[in-house]
Specification:
Radius of gyration: 22 Å
CATH topology of the largest domain: Rossmann fold
Distance between the termini: 28 Å
Helix content: 40-55%
Mean pLDDT: 82
CATH superfamily of the largest domain: P-loop containing nucleotide triphosphate hydrolases
CATH class of the largest domain: Alpha Beta
Number of strands: 9
Order of helices and strands: HHEHEEEHEEHEHHEHHHEHHHH
Strand content: 5-15%
Low-confidence stretches: 279-320, 355-360
Shape: globular
Strand order of the largest sheet: 4-3-5-2-6-1-7-8-9
CATH architecture of the largest domain: 3-Layer(aba) Sandwich
Length: 360
Amino acid sequence: MKDSTLDETVIDTLQAALDSERLPTAAREYAQHLLRRLGSPVRVSVLGLPMSGKSELINMFVGRRLFPKDAQLPTTEIVHGDVERMTVTGADGKVDVTDKIDLEQISGSNAAFLKIELPAPILRRVSLLEVVTDGTIAELSSAVDWSVRRTDIALWCSQSFAEDEQAVWHRVPDSLKDHAFLVLTKADVLSAKESLSKQVAALETIVAEEFHSLFAVATLQAVKAHRGDGAVDETMYHASGGGALTAEILRHAERGRRADFDGAHLFLARYKIQAAAGAHKSTEAPPAAKAPSGPAERPSLVEEPAKPAAVVAESAPERPENPELFADAIRFLKRRGETLGNSVAKLGEGKANALIPQCV
């Protein structure tokens, strides 16, 4: 892992390298991509059919009943903000910004997109996107195609993950499936029907192939665990399954951010770019760039370095002839490694000899 003190200057150094205009075209494009990644939080999209518990799951994450029950709202992005703010984009393209969040007022309106800013702690690390559709397979498929281009971590909410849902999920790229979770929402209802364990067992094979893992969450219980004064009933929250899901998402987000920084360090080393002199150092994570009011691509970071970085321009590294083949191999090895690791953990120390033939 890189020294965190180097992370503090990497954004300024990348910006300085771009300002120098001495990088090859391909390298400039990648540097801009890295800046966008480092300048915005990890993007979590919440997908699924209507009434699948998506809104309650977001209520759980932000620690309050943000979405009213049965509210008819458009696709909504929730990001961090020092003060509460709501930006509504109408079907006619008109944009209204208010400092008061009143979702009852816009429920059922002609709003096409909604952006909410909240000072919720989790939003400093991830942004949330609830993807709303009318429930038809055609619209859900289109919404999934649109959202995956704006997603780092995906959550699919369901109680059964039926065949029609599976058909839509197959559209998702394998690279995202490695960072996707199937969430059985309303787990308390399934448990009351004595069908939760059976449902989890039935989905085991599908989850192994299509998701990173499965979480069962009693969403209503998880929301109730957040008290009005900001306190959290930790026992209730973890019993609901919400604590485990939140922790895993934040771990994934941290690994993703670590990978972004490592990629930036490798890029700087590849082109022999020295740290920008006098670059500002901060103990906090890089601030998120101001997000657009509508569904747009990740925002760009605009930080000015004190002095341009020294750049030794070299040709951009060649891409392999068959990148898809390499990507498939990496995903296979990753999943195989995770399977073997889980098997070793279950067997215990000194009892894993039976796995050795599978490693060669």
